[in-house]
């Protein structure tokens, strides 16, 4: 009904515009003066909304929001093995297009045969980068793990990693241990005390082969995307990747003098986890690049295994400014250069990685992941990997509560995943002030 009403109003508006244009011919007087002013005012309002409407929401998507309500049809899959049970659920929601993609590889070859791979990629500016990453990441991970296994010393590892970076500069992954949260999930640069047996704070690269493989793979994936984007552009195939959003149009003008790449303004976050399937001492290693999130349920408490990479964080803002950028509050969120991304790490987005005099980890936006490893305990119940759309209306603790309540009520892991994405989608964007209007994708791994 809403879609029909919108179509009628749209067609009526187009008709009035045609009448208004006919009136421009001498001798034509088809409208009352008040009616003319109304048409002009409506046209100005439409233009303003098209240009700046996307800035009122925390993220912008190609095509904007859907008309007539959210698309709640879900794509849900599940599986089990080696003491793990998992489910993935994807829902388009209010967005005009689905830009999320997920990846599950329950079985990996050596040297990661004892690990299971789970990943959520949240695309922006288009779905190309997220979908490519979801298909190619397991292959890239395998190549990187083999290279690391075959390395004889640290120097060999560094040189191999350098070959995989976008500009030949070796990148070391930063990492810190997870923190437990209750209620508010706001990020702080202050050290977090030891809670629920998980100690927070900075640390050197951790996770052994798993952590190093994930770190190298994220950078290699970004380099692969850069090469692919250059190839698509040089062959004239990037017509499939054109952006229609107002921010995309503005950005194309700003990047006119930079090297063209099909993925200059198309990117994706990445939250990836390797879960140990073997018995005895088990671990989960998480690589985070962007503002998707990994949350562990430990005896009912939310333990965040990732930190949202936002431009306003002290370290992120410092790097952005040193790269010649700025961070400005636009509407409800901070954006790079005032008009750009509201996250500071991502795959793709090569417009923000265009300084040839800076290394890969010094650009405005980087693909360097944070690596965090935690040993699994007997009271660890499940792990949630989800895009930021699942956290617009909920804190990390609330997400855990939703999933835990569903499982306690006897629902399957698939049903719990569907319950989470359902509750993450706003029933009314006006009442929630735009929050809950994103794509929603989540993976639940029951331990």
TrEMBL record:
Alphabetic keyword roster: Hydrolase, Metal-binding, Protein phosphatase
Domain PPM-type phosphatase: 85-447
Amino acid composition bias (Polar residues), ranges on this chain: 160-177
Location of the protein in the cell: Membrane
Lyase found in the keyword field: no
Annotated membrane topology: Peripheral membrane protein
Record GO terms (molecular function): metal ion binding; protein serine/threonine phosphatase activity
Pfam families per record: PP2C
Database matches in InterPro entries: PP2C, PP2C_BS, PPM-type-like_dom_sf, PPM-type_phosphatase-like_dom
Chain spans, region Disordered: 150-209
This protein's name: PPM-type phosphatase domain-containing protein
Species this protein is from: Symbiodinium natans
Lineage: Eukaryota, Sar, Alveolata, Dinophyceae, Suessiales
């Amino acid at each position: 009904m809403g879609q029909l009403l919108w179509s009628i109003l749209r067609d009526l508006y187009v008709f009035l515009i045609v009448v208004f244009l006919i009136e421009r011919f001498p001798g034509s007087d088809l409208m009352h003066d008040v009616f003319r002013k109304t048409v002009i005012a409506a046209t100005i309002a439409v233009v303003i909304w098209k240009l700046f409407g996307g800035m009122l929401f925390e993220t912008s998507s190609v095509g904007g929001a859907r008309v007539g309500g959210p698309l709640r049809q879900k794509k849900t899959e599940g599986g089990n093995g080696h003491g793990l049970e998992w489910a993935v659920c994807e829902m388009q929601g209010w967005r005009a297009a689905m830009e999320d993609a997920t990846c599950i590889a329950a079985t990996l070859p050596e040297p990661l045969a004892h690990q299971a791979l789970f990943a959520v990629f949240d695309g922006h500016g288009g779905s190309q980068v997220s979908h490519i990453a979801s298909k190619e990441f397991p292959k890239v991970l395998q190549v990187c793990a083999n290279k690391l296994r075959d390395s004889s010393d640290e120097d060999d590892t560094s040189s191999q990693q350098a070959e995989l970076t976008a500009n030949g500069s070796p990148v070391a992954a930063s990492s810190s241990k997870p923190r437990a949260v209750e209620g508010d999930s706001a990020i702080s640069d202050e050290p977090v005390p030891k809670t629920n047996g998980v100690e927070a704070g900075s640390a050197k690269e951790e996770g052994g082969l798993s952590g190093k493989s994930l770190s190298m793979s994220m950078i290699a994936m970004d380099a692969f995307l850069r090469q692919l984007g250059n190839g698509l552009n040089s062959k004239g195939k990037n017509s499939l990747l054109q952006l229609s959003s107002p921010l995309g149009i503005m950005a194309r003008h700003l990047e006119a003098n930079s090297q063209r790449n099909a993925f200059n303004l198309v990117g994706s976050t990445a939250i990836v986890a390797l879960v140990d399937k073997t018995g005895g001492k088990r671990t989960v290693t998480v690589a985070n690049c962007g503002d998707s999130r990994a949350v562990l349920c430990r005896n009912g408490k939310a333990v965040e295994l990732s930190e949202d990479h936002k431009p306003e964080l002290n370290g992120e803002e410092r790097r952005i400014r040193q790269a010649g950028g700025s961070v400005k509050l636009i509407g409800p969120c901070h954006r790079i250069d005032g008009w750009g991304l509201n996250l500071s790490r991502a795959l793709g987005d090569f417009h923000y990685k265009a300084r040839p005099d800076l290394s890969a980890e010094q650009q405005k936006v980087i693909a360097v992941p944070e690596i965090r490893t935690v040993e699994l305990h007997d009271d660890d119940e499940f792990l949630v990997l989800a895009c930021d759309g699942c956290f617009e209306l909920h804190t990390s603790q609330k997400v855990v509560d939703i999933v835990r309540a569903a499982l306690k009520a006897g629902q399957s892991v698939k049903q719990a995943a569907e319950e989470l994405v359902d509750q993450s989608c706003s029933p009314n964007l006006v009442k929630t002030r735009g929050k809950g209007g994103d794509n929603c994708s989540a993976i639940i791994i029951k331990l």
